[in-house]
Amino acid sequence: xxxxxxxxxxxxxxxxxxxxxxxLLNNKTIASNHGSYNEIDWNxxxxxxxxxxxxxxxxxxxxxxxxxVSVIRKNVKNTDDQLMIISYIPYEEILETVNxxxxxxxxxxxxxxxxxxxxxxxxxxxxxHQMKRFRYEMHxxxxxxxxxxxxxxxxxxxxxxxxxLNSMVQQIKE
Length: 174
Known about the structure:
The protein has 174 residues and is an alpha+beta fold.
């Protein structure tokens, strides 16, 4: 089986990649979006010696910048040929992406915290208002004023206690 690769099609697929990327066939560059087609960086020579790993990453200095090199290796079926995609991702860009994601996460956490805080304050205020109202009506009944409103509103335990208080006051009045 004879297979040929069209470098123009490979270039078109690799050209739009954000980072420097090379496609190698048997350790020879056949397509690249930046740089030389024939030259393999000196800091990749030890990576290319490893013939067993399908994915390798290593921190190197590329174009005088700290860079993560990612190598994906794929053996071509029924041949001894090996394809590799090598991408150079500058650490600065990785950190910018991580920091951006972190800031978005912190914003979401902050918004959730604020919503939770507002809900807690609203619930506590409502609960406190009902407790104060219940306590006031109990003191009124204890002082002999049996003209209590029928309910203090709400459908919770405090309003149920108030109904019991109201029933007790009505029985005392009779």
